[in-house]
Amino acid sequence: MISEARSRVAAQATRACPGVPVHQSVPARLDLPAILITEGTPFITTARFGTWSIAWRVLVIARPGDNSTMIGWLDDTVSALIDGIDDLTEVEPFTTMTGPDGQLLLTCALTITTMEGMNP
C-alpha cells in the first residue's frame, strides 16, 4: 500500500516536471535541481470506512544560483506540480536550507495527501 502510493506520487511529479529528477528516498549523492519524496506528518490517518490518507512531503530544491533565477525556477516548478498532481496539496513558503558544502539552497515543501483503501 505505502510503496504503491509513493510510486504514484513520484510518477505524477515526474510527469508534471519532466526535466527534474524525482527521488523516492534521499539518494547518496543529490544533484540539483531535485524533487525528494518523503513521509509527511501525520504520515497515515484513518478516514472513512475502509480508507486512510497518506501524507507525503515533497521537497523541491532549486539549483544554486542568483536569487531571482532560483525563485523563478521554484515558481514554475511548484506551479507545475500543483497543476499536475490531482491529490490535495498544501504548499509552504519558499525557504532556505544549507547544503552539504555549506551553500544556501532555496527550497519549497509541498504536502500531497493521497486517499487509499477500498473506497478512496
Q: Could you write a compact summary of the structure shown?
A:
28% of the residues lie in helices and 40% in strands. It has 120 residues and is α+β, with helices and mostly antiparallel strands.
| CATH architectural type | 2-Layer Sandwich
Uncertain segments:
none
How many structural domains in the coordinates? 1
Mean of the pLDDT scores?
A: 92
CATH class: Alpha Beta
Strand-pairing-aware structural class: alpha+beta
Counting H and I runs of at least 4 residues, what is the number of helices? 2
Characterise the protein shown here.
It is a single chain. With 120 residues, the protein is an alpha+beta fold. It has a single domain (2-117), classed as Alpha-Beta Plaits, CATH 3.30.70.1700. Helix content is 28%, strand content 40%. The protein has two helices and six strands; from the N terminus they run H-E-E-E-H-E-E-E. It has helices at residues 2-16, 67-84, and strands at 22-23, 34-46, 51-61, 88-91, 95-98, 104-117. Strands 1, 2, 3, 4, 5 and 6 form a six-stranded mixed sheet that branches. A hairpin with a 5-residue loop joins strand 5 and strand 6. The protein is elongated.
Topology:
Elements: H1 2-16, E1 22-23, E2 34-46, E3 51-61, H2 67-84, E4 88-91, E5 95-98, E6 104-117
What key attributes describe this structure?
120 residues, Alpha-Beta Plaits, 6-stranded mixed beta sheet, 2 helices, 6 strands, elongated
